[in-house]
Structure formats: C-alpha cells, structure tokens
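Hey, can you fold this one?
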Amino acid sequence: MMKNYIRILRLFCLALFLCPDDAEGQEKLITLSGQVRDAKNGNTLPFGNVQLKKGNDAKFIFGTLSNEQGRFTLKDVPPGEYTLEVSMMGYQRLSKTINVGLLSQFLDLGNFDLTEDPQTLQTVEVKGTATSEGVSAKMDKKTYDIAKNTSQLGGSVLQAMQNLPGVTIQDGKVQLRGNDKVAVLIDGKQNAITGFGSQTGLDNIPASAIERIEIIANPSSRFDANGNAGIINIIYKKNSQEGLNGKAGLSSGLGALWVRKENLPGISPQYQATPKLNPTLSLNYKKNKTNTFLQADYLYTQTLNKNEFSERIFDNGTILNQQVKRNRTTTFATVKTGVDYNPDEHNSLTVSAFFNREKIIDFGDIPYYNSDFSVRNRLWQFVEDEVKYTATGSATYLHKFAQPGHTLTTGFNYTWHREDEKYNFTNILPAFTGEDAFKLLSDEHVSDLNVDYVKPLKHGRLEAGLKYRYRNIPTNMQFFAGLNSPIDVNAGGWADYSEHIPAVYGNYIYETPKIELEAGLRMEYANIYYDVNPEHNTYTSDGYDYFRPFPNLRFAYKINPENRITFFYNQRVDRPNEVDIRIFPKYDEPELLKVGNPTLRPQFTTSLELGYKYNWHKGYLHGSAFHKIISGTITRIATQVPGNTILYNIFQNAGKSYNLGGELLWQQQLKPWFSFNLSGTVYQHTINAFSIENRYPVPTLYSMNKESLISGNAKLNAQFKLKGNTDIQLSIAWLAADIIPQGKIGSRFSADFGIKKQLGKGEVFLNGNDIFNTLKIKKEITGNGFKLNSTDYYESQVFRIGYNYKF
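Sure. Predicted structure:
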C-alpha cells in the first residue's frame, strides 16, 4: 500500500497541468452600499458626501452623494482595503476602514451615523492593496471562453470540453477526475437535452451556440444536490447592447478520412469522408426597457459512431469474434428565444423558450465469427430511426430592493421531452433469416419552481431559497418478433416513472482580510415511484424515498495577496436516471444486452478537498488534493447466464468506492505572443469487493474482489498570437489506463490544432481534432465465466473550416 502512495506522490510531483488563460482572469468589481443617518435621532440624511480613499496618501478613488433616503451606492470597486469617509455640513466627518473582498458582488456596509459638530475631523489614512485573481476567487470554479478554444471551433460542446483541465471524455460522457457523475446545466438550469441528474446530448449541441462553459467542482447548497463529480454549466450566447446586434456563422468539415481497420467480411462499408455542416445565428435587439434575443443553430453530421472489434473468451473454451459497426447520420436543430423586460430599476422579468429537434438514423452491422474466423455464426443488422423533441418554457421575475444586491428571484420552468425510437432488425443465421423490430415512445414532463433570496451583509451575504420539482415519464415499449426471434417479447409493455423533490437551502458567506467562510445546508426530500407493467416477466413496481441534509463548507486563509489555501467539504447524491432503471432490454447488440434495473438506489458521496493557489506576474499555479467516498456506487455489471453466450449488462449498486488524488494547474504567459497551459491529474481509483444479483432474465449471482489502480491525465495547450490578428492553438492530451467495472480501459493520446484570423468584424478558422488519428478505446472485462477484450476504432479525426461575422 505504501508503494502505491509513493507512486502517487512521484507522479503528482512530475505531472504538469493546465488551466486556460481565460479562466476568470479578470478582476472582480464590487458594488458597495450603505445609509447615512443622524446619530441622535436615527433620521436619514440626504445628500451626504461619501468618498472612498486608499493608500498612505489617502488617494481619492470613488465618490457619490446619498439619495433622498440617505442611501448611497459605489459601483465597480476593486477588491482591497480602503477608507470610506462620510461628511456633511454641520456634522463630524466619519471615517471607517473597510475590506472589499472577492466572494460577494454586493456588500452592505450598514449605517453611517453622523454626530452633530461644526468641526470636521482629520482624514484617517489607511494603507491597503487591491488583489487580483486568475482562477475564481473561491477556487471552486473555472470558466472557459469557447471562442478562445480555436482547436475546437465548429465542433460540439462535448468536443469543446475534451481539452479542459481535469476533464476526460469516455463512452460519449464527460468525466471530472475520472468520474462521470456530472450534473450538466444549460444557463444554470437542468434541461432534458443534457439530462436531469445525468448527461446526454452533449455531442450534438453545437459549440458555436455557447458563450462559455463553467466547471464547478465543489458546488454550494444553492445548487441541486445531484452530481458528485461536480457541475458543468453551459452558458448560451446572449448580448444586451443597444439596438440590433448579433453574430452569424457557418462551418463545415470532414471526418473519417481513411479506414483505420478494415471490416470483417460480408458487411456494408464504413462511413468515410463524413460531412459536417453547422450554420448558426445569434440576434439581440434592445430598445428602452426591452431586450429581445434569439439563438438559432442547425447541425448536420455523419459519423462512424462506433467501430469496435472484440473477442469473447469463455471458460468452457468457446471463443467468439465480432465487430460492432455503426454508421450514424444526425440532424440537430435548436432555437432559443426570449424577452427581458425592465419596467423600472427595481424589477425585471425574463420570459424565454427553448425548442429542439434531434433526429438520428443508425445503420448497424454486427457479424459474429468463430475463433479462427472460418465460420460466421450470425450477422445482425439494424436500422435505428430515432426522433427527440424538446420544448422548454421559462419565466423569471427579479425584484431588487433599495439596498444594492438585495434581491428576490422567482422562477418557473416547464420542460416537455419526447423520445420516439424505432428499430428494425435483420437476423441472418446459416439456416434462416428473421425480421424483428421494436418501438419505444417516451414522454417526459418536468416542472420546476424556484425561489432565491440574497441579502448583502457588511462582511458577506446571506442566501436562502426553495425548490420543488415534479417529473413524470410514461414509457411504452412494443416488441415485434419475427422467425425464431431472439427478442424477449414478454419484457415489453409500459412503465411510468414519477418523482417529487422538494428542497430548501441556506448559505452564509463571511469574509475578512485574511479569512473566507462559506457554509451552507440543503435539505432535500425525494420520493421516486416506478410503476411497471404487472405482466413483466422479471420486474415489479418499485421505488424509494429519502429525506436528508446535504451540507457544504468552504474555508480559505489568505496568506497574502499572492497565496491562499482553501478547504472544501460537501455531501452530494446521484439518483438513478429513468433510463438507468428502464426495464426494457435494448437489442442494438443482441449478444451484449443492456437492461435497466428498477431496484437501483441512489449513491451518496462525501468529498474533501484542500487547494492552494500562488500568483506571480502573468502566471499562477493552483494545486489541490481531493478524496471522495462513495456509498452504493452505481455501475453496470455484465453477467453470463449459465449455458448461454449472451451477456447481460445491468446497472447495480456495487458497494463502496474511493477516489484519492491530486491536481495541478499551471498558466504562464512567456511573451506577448506566446502563452502555454499545462495540466494534469493523478488519482487512485478503488472499488471495494462486492456481490450483486442480476435478476434479468434469470437470477445470476456475481462477486468481484477489491480493485485499485493509479490513473490520471496530462494536457498541454499552447497559444500563439501572431501578427495580422492571427491566433494558433495546439492541444495535446494523454489519458492513463483506468479501471472500469469488471476491468480496465487502456491509455489514450490525441492532439488537436487550430488557427483563427480576424478579418474586420469577421473571423475565419481552420482546425483539426485528433490530427494524428491515434485515439482508440481498448477495454478488458472479466466476468462470471468469460473475458471480453475490445478495441473501438470509432471516428475521432475531424477537420473543419468556418467563418463567423459580428454585426
């Protein structure tokens, strides 16, 4: 064990890590407020003179007058230590030393009570310095401007995230520090496109529609409790300039330029030179009190979505070879529109709508051969025709009290999402050919009500709120079996998923010149019910509920303006998504069936993290050590039914698991024309021994011994700013081998390149992903009586060209 920790320490010290140059690199500006009163009777004093000064020479920085109610506001104040002076004819001059921190955008300095006196006091001089931060002040969030990620322009959001520090992509999902339990938000809200409590659709959302991406590793109690790995918040583009303004763009590209591995005999060709097309339009019109916005995107792409070659070795000596090839065509159309209305300085209303249509057509071939490829046992071909619709309506009302930063926000969101999926299969065996099919129809209805309250304090702020969610998903699966069909027609029927989740939270933020404290608590009740067709041959109705607290704590000590240490603690939950418990087997791969598990329960996580940040001229270093303890780990487990070569891949709660490691982020600008970022993560992933029972199609027991492996990743981003408004980016990523349920995934390497040139109000770009075509996924899985070795040569190399114009 000690050797493993020594290896972790060595790898951690040797790793070089990345943090992007735009990660909240601008200094935060704060709004100060207070009220001037008469000390004797408490009456408010209008038109008092308020001045903000700093330094030994009491240099004047800002000034204002109190209004008719005695209130004053000072906007855009940089963090630092200041002297605030309040004076008025007939009163003594009042001076107070104040500290302007980084945590709260608004600070209420309280009352300034002036004492009657015709004489004024001398100015009190206080020495102070302002601070500047690169990573977010709380060290819990990193923000990335998509427009600066030149190597990923014109691609999807999923592709845009693969170069970000601490982020890896595996099986089409985002992982943070090797964990895919990530909550994905769109404009701060969960959306059916990206999933409620899971992540979907990221590979189809055009990056051209996105302004920035926020990665929140340690969320506060203001956020929903789900997502133990953290939160990714995708912010759509939206301007608020006067008049008509916007941006239009068009990009196109090609992927799969050559065959990386030839097909097995007798199947249709792989997609090659796959086209990509992405027109986009962003519009804003602001006049007087109204701002209208529109974001429209269309994405057409063909991809070699999967091209996996695998070998199954059974304990009885049987060896089966197969290929899973999936040619995919996707169209993805999105429109986001809305209106901001500001009738006065204290009230605003935003009404918005989000519409999306996604259509996927897959053509799949799966040949099955014996050990020496001399006999083809089966050729399974399928055509998937799937259409998804999403419509979201949102209304948000914001009331600003007289005190700046004192707000009450009420919001309501409704989402409807339809999944209409049809599969047609051709089952070619040596003796006959059969035709099978199934049809799935699922409607999702989600209603969210949110109330959030913020009260600025003298040294921080108080946040509180409540949320209620109702979610209902009726699902109907119909199987149509052909000649000698392998499909289980008795596993179909209907199922109805519903959830009720009320929650309340409170969060307190306090800051002094040396200390930062953020402590919060979210109380959440969840009632989940899953009503299953009573004639289903395996599963019956099931559900669960819980009521528990989810605390969070952040404590920081500011050693000096260049150095700070921060400690995080939080508890979070990952509830099974409806797809995870869906009772119907999926036959796109008939000898490795994926089936949901309605007995699945939530996993709960306790997270600890210690971070350190050191700033220097045009650079910084941010390091962290983290430890996650997960109870009821959710993972898929594949088992073999005795006497059958079919594998059943079913979600289970696999007991406790742990993630212990460290992360380093280094940013440096060496020259005005050159900056680089290095990043890396090293962690030890451990899964305790466990035993489970896969109940479908018949009860099958499986036990696994304790597994542990040291893994991680390292990334390099190099940015060149050349003459003629030309930017060049080179990105290199290496991912170490890691454990997966019942096995291991191999190491991976890829490199991306991009060049962008400004042409007046427009820009033209050219980029390439996985330019050396090295990215492939190798897996080794060991189960009850079998081993599965596979390599996926899916399409990873894509070259794009595009043009964007601002007006």
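The helical segments are 2-14, 157-161, 578-581. Let me know if you want another pass with a different chain boundary.
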